[in-house]
Amino acid sequence: MSTNPYRFLPLLPFLVIAPVLAQQGVPDLSGCACITDASLRLACYDHLVGVNTTPSAGATAASLVAQVDHADQTSHDLSPEKTRGFSLADHWELDQEHRRGVFNFRPHHATYLMVTRSAHPNNEPYRPFRNLADFNTDLSHNELVYQLSFKTKVAEDIASKPVDLWFGYTQNSFWQAGNRQASSPFRETNYQPELMAVTPLNFNVLGMHASFLNLGLVHQSNGQASTLSRSWNRVYAQVGLERAGFTVLGRVWKRINEAASDDDNPDIVDYMGRGDLAVTYRSSNGHDYSALLRRNFSTNRGAVQLSWAFPLAGHFKGYTQYFSGYGQSLIDYNYYQNVVGLGLLGTF
Prior knowledge:
By secondary structure, the protein is mainly beta. The chain has five helices and 13 strands. The chain has a twelve-stranded antiparallel β-barrel with strand order 2-3-4-5-6-7-8-9-10-11-12-13. It has two domains: 1-76, no CATH class; 82-346, Phospholipase A1 (Outer membrane phospholipase (ompla), Chain C, Beta Barrel). It is globular and about 85 Å long. The chain has helices at residues 29-33, 38-49, 61-75, 88-91, 268-272; strands at 105-107, 111-118, 142-155, 164-175, 186-205, 208-221, 231-243, 246-255, 275-282, 288-296, 301-313, 316-326, 336-346.
């Protein structure tokens, strides 16, 4: 696949303060609009149009400028916008305000159930088993796909440092529920346990706030045997950035090599790449827009996954997903697919 990953940098509007007027200065029209106090805001407009009115007590030009400066600082605040219901500080319990102790289950990756349609199912891995009842026909284009994912903190403040140890688990299953000719088999299930050491960060980069660093060890396999077996182990480093509804998670990994005799997929990095970039925008009306990009620049192979979640009821959102590329599942790590899905996303 030759899809070029797009460099993602959110562009946010910011407030421009005009040069001060006279000796102490007064903001321009856009600056006046930022003033929350009604009497001060009116006095500001009066000054701009040349009307000599006496503002209320304390409404000097200096106080007008001070209010606009405060509004400007707020508009440039790089901390998470908590009114949108999500922050990395809460997701990873990065400060005292969000800590919940150890062995409390939290969401990790997305948890969803959806109906998918694949343009070209990958029948090739199952051809040696065509004599078995479960695989006596081609795969269906339609599947039920679900993913369950959680994490729990197992230790905090390791060695009196701001480092927490987390355990995470993700399971992704692909069920040929409507393929009755093949006895409706589970075509593939991927199991992914991982250990993560997470520490908070607090600096600004590329106009965003760097919130955490995650050093992880992850295993992924499909629990199969013989020619259907797929697995790999990785160590990775991940950085989380956020600002005003945007979340960017950048990760690079290194595969832990296996003995050639035990390696079911020696070329998996050629297709799955050496890292990924996940970008999410959470709007104030409850809609979430996400993109996952993965690529190996040496082989020009990778994948892109786009998703949209929209409010429904309670702890559920509607969920749509589009996947194009290699590695939607481990059995398909070297198979190019285009898949669309529609279903439900849990927000527990």
